[in-house]
Amino acid sequence: MAVTDAAISSIKDMILSGELGPGDRLPREADLAERLGLSRNSLREAVRALALINVLDVRQGDGTYVTSLEPGLLLDALSFVVGFHQDDTVLQFFEVRRILEPAATAMAATRMTDEDIAELRGILDTFPEQPSTEDFVANDLRFHQRIAEGAGNPVLSSLIESISGPTARARIWRGLTQEGAAETTRAQHAAIFEAIAGRRPEIAQAWAAVHIAGVEEWLRRAL
Predict the structure, then answer these.
(1) Hey, what domains does the chain have and what are their CATH numbers?
(2) Model's pTM, two decimal places?
(3) How confident is the model at residue 1 (pLDDT cuts 50, 70, 90)?
């Protein structure tokens, strides 16, 4: 079991056992991490995941609380997940991405200026070592959009940007549920960047196709 999954399970057990009830405040982060035998980073990821599904409420400067756990509140989160898994139209958006983005990446390898490439490198370098799901997805979106802009075709760039919205939810869910998603994305982004920086359009196109197809294949299995 992944460390973050173990942390989620431990907090869930505290709620199910009655140790934590609706409206209760969680112990201090340091104390809870020590008690559960977890790193504070793993605990934070668990809290963030449970907050996304309305089990916990993180109040800045105050602490983290168990929500009311009212059925309506929890069903809001459940309907999000169920809606995602029943709606396979997002796969169609990924199919379009798989067609458009590799071509745009090849164009970017021949058209991006040295300054453009330096900016793309900056985005790659700001990918955190242990990113939160939000940071992971935000960096992923910036990286792909910068490449689309670098293709030098505003119509193509706009098409790719319009597709990013419908696929963002899948990217978030992947970041939360697929172990190693961030590390795989970082490595593949680096390969794409090196091909662009080396002015090798065929290699850049191939890596972009591998990258997007991998996410698409994960989504097909998840659905």
Answers:
(1) 3-72 (1.10.10.10), 87-222 (1.20.120.530)
(2) 0.62
(3) very low
